[in-house]
Design brief:
CATH superfamily of the largest domain in chain A: Tetracycline Repressor, domain 2
CATH architecture of the largest domain in chain A: Orthogonal Bundle
Order of helices and strands of chain A: HHHHHHHHHH
Pfam families (chains A, B): TetR_C_43, TetR_N
Protein name (chains A, B): TetR/AcrR family transcriptional regulator
Oligomer: homodimer
Largest sheet of chain A: none
GO molecular function (chains A, B): DNA-binding transcription factor activity; transcription cis-regulatory region binding
Domain HTH tetR-type (chains A, B): 6-65
Number of helices of chain A: 10
Organism (chains A, B): Nocardioides agariphilus
Number of domains of chain A: 2
Number of strands of chain A: 0
Structural class of chain A: mainly alpha
CATH topology of the largest domain in chain A: Tetracycline Repressor, domain 2
Distance between the termini of chain A: 53 Å
Radius of gyration of chain A: 18 Å
Strand content of chain A: under 5%
DNA sequence: AACCATACGGAGACTGTCTCCGTTTAGCAA
DNA sequence: TTGCTAAACGGAGACAGTCTCCGTATGGTT
């Protein structure tokens, strides 16, 4: 890749991160291009779709997901507390920008999605949580990591779109936890 | 209201119902106007926003919700089976057109929403289900009808956006039911 | 220095939203 | 029936966002 191309690409991602956070996932792409000081053509060449851009923006986010799981797994406490706390982390992670929960959760398990690399990481980390719980025999066995993501994702979507805060979301997550454990 | 106005209004609602079902909630409103044989101005005068039109389209739907609850409440069986079956009904009802679950669930509990009349009916009927379960002492008591709608709505959104069929959705709903009952 | 593959960027086609306003008409009163 | 007017119509067009095409500019190489 030519030096000027890389410079522009990086700058677009940087600006897009800000704008997505400020204005949500619906922000105008031409506007992002303008703010980054490039033409729309340049943006669309680097990122053929909105999702492709989002995928790039989320690159750094992937590391946070893994870190968060590492931290969660050393937690000492009841499976219920562990699971609720991990759900809260999960919801927070996918709610970093408006529209995120819907975007991510509906792409979950869809291999040819433009953000498949990201959902795969999320799924892998959830699998670690599932394994951890199974090792204790605490998790019902008709549920896998994908379904767990969908359940938590569903709550996250509702919280995101309905403007629920953490206190309003927690009881919903405890219901999930209680339904999942045995 | 003048006779021609009523005629046009009815025709727009009728066409919108078809188009929303065919193409989802994002269908072009100008297109609906065209199919209904009226100008866009006429459509926008009758229905200032997409939501206002959706609200009108859903009018008939309200009766189905009440009917469905009536039927569900005479069900004889365990609370678990009852709740799962009612969840399935609930999800089906709000999934009648694409985007419906997200639209309805995020409006749930928001009094000044354009479709507030519809969510209120849904909430009232859910309350009947809650009362029914409470009478049997089967429902945990930190959860109300609104939260129940949000949980089921969350699953419905995921199912809608992720293209899950009834078989893939059922296990998610059983988790909810198990988490809600005691 | 010359070359050219690569990249740029902006004009503009296209689509959807929504408004304004000149035209038409339903319903009523004389 | 006729005439009047408020109500309703509808379409041109302003505006915004998406996305492409293509003439121009330039980084990297020989």
């Amino acid at each position: 890749m030519r030096a000027d191309a890389k410079r522009n690409r990086d700058r677009i991602v940087e600006v897009a991160r800000e704008v997505f956070r400020e204005r949500g996932y619906d922000a105008s792409l031409d506007d992002i291009a303008k703010r980054a000081g490039v033409g729309p053509g340049t943006l669309y060449r680097h990122f053929p779709s909105r999702d492709a851009l989002l995928d790039a923006v989320m690159q750094a986010w992937v590391d946070r997901v893994t870190d968060a799981t590492d931290k969660a797994l050393v937690y000492e406490g009841s499976p219920r507390e562990f699971l609720v706390s991990w759900f809260e982390t999960y919801v927070a992670l996918i709610s970093l920008h408006k529209g995120g929960p819907a975007k991510i959760t509906s792409a979950m398990g869809v291999e040819d999605s433009p953000i498949a690399t990201k959902t795969r990481v999320l799924l892998t980390q959830t699998q670690r949580v599932v394994d951890h719980l199974r090792a204790q025999g605490a998790l019902r066995d008709d549920i896998d990591a994908l379904q767990l993501c969908r359940l938590a994702g569903g709550v996250a979507v509702v919280a995101d779109q309905g403007g629920l805060d953490a206190d309003a979301t927690r009881p919903l997550l405890t219901v999930l936890a209680d339904g999942l454990l045995r």
